[in-house]
């Protein structure tokens, strides 16, 4: 993996910092442990399920000794301790190789910052890998990593997985600890409802393995990840296009991908097309819901204090920050212009949509729909399609687990994914559907 990373990184620019020498020493220690432990293969698998397995980590998630500034040029402090999910992965025997590139403060669906630069899509260097887990997805997509730890708020794990043709899972809220992620939020209760740390992988079955390792011990029993799931008993619902007035229409290639997947499941499952109220407003509802969370770490104090002066510096070419990070402050500064009654109505719409979803899905159903209406955008073009990511972000607002599944390639040779959604804490259903999709459609293919 070190050799492959060294080969591809000059092209994709996905690495913030590597720890190759430490990783090689830890690999030798793992070999020595296997020889001297006296444990059987089954015992080793039970105690250390990731023993000697290399893992890559999103640059916003703390790895002890590594830079931990989420792409900020003025935040070069090194992490003193591992983030909780990284510590769990290490305890299971995993060996971190590097931290991967992120947009500044993770506030972009394009992975670019002024510290490292822009990360490229492994299938076409002119295209984005998505964001904010874009460095992670790009490395896994081109075979330079097997599994990785990313994070998701507004689709920032699933969009890169879609763009780079890999598997990615946004867990249910509070399944994986967010301790050690930067940026963080003081309003933990609200933040942990919409923000999650989760696994990315080249192969579908590794999502469940990595999630079972990094999940908090107190939720593992409820998740029942090791419980066998009879896929034929899962009720499959699907949406081809939410028909939002703000997003682009779903590409015909993606609609065909959904139709092919449904045709497969229709041979042994109950499959039903559905229309849910307010889904056409998914971008508006979710973006305002996420923007309304107070005390998220950003460039500015309070509700965007100083954002306008920094925007002026940017327009004069004097700012050291990215436009998207500044825009977050500007938007927060103007949040007070939204009437309180409107925000109350938005939250009521979200609650009603959640109830409708739960009524449909129950504890034995999944929803299949596009992860994004389009293939990976050209660099910079994603800003013209900002509302497309409502397809992802609505499930952060609703608090549901979602898995991105690579299905096929577009006529331009770019990966196309779909997402599988289930009710809260029913992660095992989306992961089981993902494994069935991989068996039937092949999953990751680097071409």
From TrEMBL:
Pfam families from the UniProt entry: Amidase (PF01425)
Alphabetical UniProt keywords: Hydrolase
Protein origin, superkingdom: Eukaryota
One function term, GO molecular function aspect: hydrolase activity
Keyword match Phosphoprotein: no
Gene Ontology CC: one annotated term: endomembrane system
Domain (Amidase): residue spans on this chain: 1-431
Family the UniProt entry places it in: Belongs to the amidase family.
Protein's UniProt name: Fatty-acid amide hydrolase 2-B
Originating organism: Asbolus verrucosus (Desert ironclad beetle)
Taxonomic path: Eukaryota, Metazoa, Ecdysozoa, Arthropoda, Hexapoda
């Amino acid at each position: 993996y070190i050799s492959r990373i060294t080969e591809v990184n000059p092209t994709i620019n996905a690495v913030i910092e590597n720890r190759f020498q430490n990783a090689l020493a830890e690999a030798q220690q793992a070999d020595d442990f296997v020889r001297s432990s006296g444990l059987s293969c089954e015992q080793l698998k039970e105690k250390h399920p990731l023993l000697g397995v290399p893992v890559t980590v999103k640059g916003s998630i703390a790895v002890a000794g590594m830079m931990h500034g989420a792409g900020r040029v003025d935040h070069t402090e090194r992490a003193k301790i591992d983030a909780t999910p990284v510590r769990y992965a290490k305890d299971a025997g995993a060996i971190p190789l590097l931290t991967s590139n992120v947009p500044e403060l993770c506030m972009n669906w394009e992975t670019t910052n002024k510290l490292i630069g822009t990360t490229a899509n492994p299938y076409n260097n002119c295209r984005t890998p998505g964001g904010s887990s874009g460095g992670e997805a790009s490395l896994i997509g081109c075979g330079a990593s097997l599994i990785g730890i990313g994070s998701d708020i507004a689709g920032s794990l699933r969009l890169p997985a879609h763009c780079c043709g890999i598997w990615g899972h946004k867990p249910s809220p509070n399944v994986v600890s967010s301790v050690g992620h930067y940026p963080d939020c003081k309003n933990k209760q609200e933040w942990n409802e919409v923000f999650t740390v989760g696994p990315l992988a080249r192969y579908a079955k590794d999502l469940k393995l990595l999630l079972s390792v990094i999940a908090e011990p107190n939720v593992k029993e409820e998740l029942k990840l090791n419980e066998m799931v009879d896929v034929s008993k899962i009720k499959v619902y699907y949406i081809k296009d939410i028909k939002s007035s703000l997003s682009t229409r779903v590409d015909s290639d993606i609609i065909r991908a959904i139709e092919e997947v449904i045709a497969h499941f229709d041979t042994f499952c109950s499959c039903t097309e559905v229309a849910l109220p307010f889904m056409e407003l998914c971008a508006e509802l979710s973006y305002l819901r996420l923007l309304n969370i107070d005390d998220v770490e950003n460039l500015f104090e309070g509700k965007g204090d100083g954002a306008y002066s920094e925007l002026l510096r940017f327009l004069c070419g004097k700012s050291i920050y990215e436009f998207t990070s500044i825009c977050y402050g500007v938007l927060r500064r103007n949040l007070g212009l939204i009437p309180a009654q409107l925000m109350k109505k938005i939250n009521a719409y979200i609650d009603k949509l959640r109830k409708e979803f739960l009524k449909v899905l129950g504890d034995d159903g999944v929803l299949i729909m596009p992860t994004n209406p389009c293939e990976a955008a050209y660099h910079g073009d994603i800003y013209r399609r900002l509302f497309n990511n409502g397809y992802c972000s609505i499930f952060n607002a609703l608090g549901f687990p979602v898995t991105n599944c690579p299905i096929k390639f577009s006529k331009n040779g770019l990966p196309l994914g779909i997402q599988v959604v289930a009710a809260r804490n029913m992660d095992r259903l989306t992961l089981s559907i993902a494994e069935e999709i991989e068996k039937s459609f092949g999953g990751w293919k680097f071409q």
